Amino acid sequence: MQFERISHPAPVPGKTRAEAIANPGFGTLFTDHMVTIDWSEDKEWHNAQLAPRGPLTLDPAASVLHYAQEIFEGLKAYRLEDGTMALFRPRENAARFNRSADRLAMPNLPEDAFVAALEALVDADKDWFPTVEGGSLYLRPFMIATEAFLGVRPAKEYKFILIASPAGNYFKSGAPAVSIWVSDYTRAAPGGTGAAKCGGNYAASLVPTREAFDRGHDQVLFLDAAEHRYIEELGGMNLFFVFDDGRILTPPLTGTILPGITRDSIIDLAREEGLDVVEEMYTLDQWREDAASGKLLETFACGTAAVVTPVGKVAGHDGEFTIGSGGPGQLTSKLREKLTGIQRGTAEDTRGWVMRLG
Predict the structure, then answer these.
(1) For the chain, which domains are there?
(2) How many alpha carbons fall within 13 Å on the CB side of residue 180?
(3) Has residue 20 got a pLDDT over 60?
(4) Where are the beta strands (DSSP E) in 75-120?
(5) Which residues carry this modification: N6-(pyridoxal phosphate)lysine (predicted)?
(6) How does pLDDT run across 92-135, given as a tens digit for each residue?
(7) What is the distance of C-alpha 227 from the center of its chain?
(8) Which helix (H) or strand (E) holds 300?
(9) How many distinct helices (H) and strands (E) make up the chain?
(10) Class of residue 54 by CB neighbours under 10 A (exposed 0-12, middle 13-18, buried 19+)
(11) C-alpha closest to that of 39 among 156, 154, 118
């Protein structure tokens, strides 16, 4: 796919950009450009552009505003030691994007077009790469239904959009491990959209997330919808449990949990270490019991934004408990170091996960 390149009339001045990316935070600072591609029933994908980032023009009756036909992805561009830019498993994001599209009755975007859009935007805005330690260029591809109509059916017009955000650390607390709140709310039910990366899932998590923040916690934990006993995932991350017998457990992908790319990578890396990784149901009561007995050594969360993050404390209406010493565990730290080393080019990539750009 060829992108029409529209020059930016007033990009952010270099000095202003340098000051901004020295401490970018997460998700509040954006680069100069964006990619857009249109889809319609008669033309399919067309009008691909790399253009100045700016507001969208939508009809008030656009389907996304009324029926929530919207999906998105999240991945990062990294700067390697030799100065080149790279992406981590971008085709996995492209494949998941299309699985989400299938669930939301939206058109598939060819994987090559998805990756080409990432390459074009990173190349245009690579000077926005943050100088903060551990920084990255966070990439947000998304698709919305743009057809103007009122009626419950799949739309006939869509727009794919890609924006970028210089990113520092996801969590702001600075604590060695995060604290999570067990929610009484449900994120997703069997047969629903839990395995799709769509805005509706995250909208459902906002009230419980606010409740967690108000109580002084970093994240919210969701249990299963049917029995409200089994651990599923956090507001935006998958969970892993490390036991004293060398076993690692993570909840299975049953359609209510997002199949994380970081999750899949961690499973592979842990098995390479000779660890027994199992995907099994795990209850909150068993988690509390195993933490108290010392059988459970570590718990960590993982996702694109937060990478690998130790969980130190769990709280809910029934009280709270601590995992291990309440700080990072040895295996959590080891897996994080191994994963980030591959992503940033300081460790050997034997699987072809890293895609160099340029």
Answers:
(1) 4-167 (3.30.470.10), 178-344 (3.20.10.10)
(2) 28
(3) yes
(4) 75-79, 85-88
(5) 197
(6) 999 999 999 999 999 999 999 999 999 999 999 999 999 888 89
(7) 27
(8) strand 296-303
(9) 9, 18
(10) exposed
(11) 156
In angstroms, the CA 91 to CA 248 distance is: 27
Q: Which residue has the tokens 């008669």?
A: 42
Residue 233 tokens, joined: 């995932």
**DSSP 8-class letter at 181:** E
Residue 70, strand partner residues: 144
Packed helices 261-272 and 90-103: angle between N→C axes, nearest 10 degrees: 130
- Structure-token pair, residue 120: 């074009």
Q: Which of 165, 139, 166, 140 is nearest to 357 (CA)?
A: 139
Distance of CA 292 to the CA centre of its chain: 31
User: Which amino acid is located at 256 in the chain?
Assistant: T
Tokens of 151: 């009626």
The total of other beta-carbon atoms located within 10 Å of residue 41's CB is 11
345 Cβ partners below 8 Å, 6+ apart? 78, 80, 81, 82, 86, 354
| Whole-prediction pTM | 0.95
* 125 in Cβ contact with 164 (< 8 Å): yes
**How does residue 306 score in pLDDT terms, banded at 50, 70 and 90?**
confident
Measured on CA atoms in the order 216, 301, 24, 138, is the torsion positive or negative? negative
Name 170's Cβ contacts closer than 8 Å, sequence gap at least 6.
26, 305, 306, 307, 309
Residue 285, CA distances (Å) to 182, 183, 223, 230, 292 in order: 12, 14, 11, 9, 11
pLDDT at 174: 53
Structure tokens of 308? 């690998």
The pLDDT tens digits for 189-238 are: 999 999 999 999 999 999 999 999 999 999 999 999 999 999 999 998 99
What CA–CA distances, in Å, run from 112 to 37, 93, 98, 115, 261?
Answer: 13, 12, 12, 5, 18
Q: Which of 244, 207, 200, 241 is nearest to 222 (CA)?
A: 207
If 0-12 CB within 10 Å is exposed, 13-18 middle and 19+ buried, where does residue 282 land?
buried
Asked whether residue 172 carries a pLDDT value surpassing 90, the answer given is no
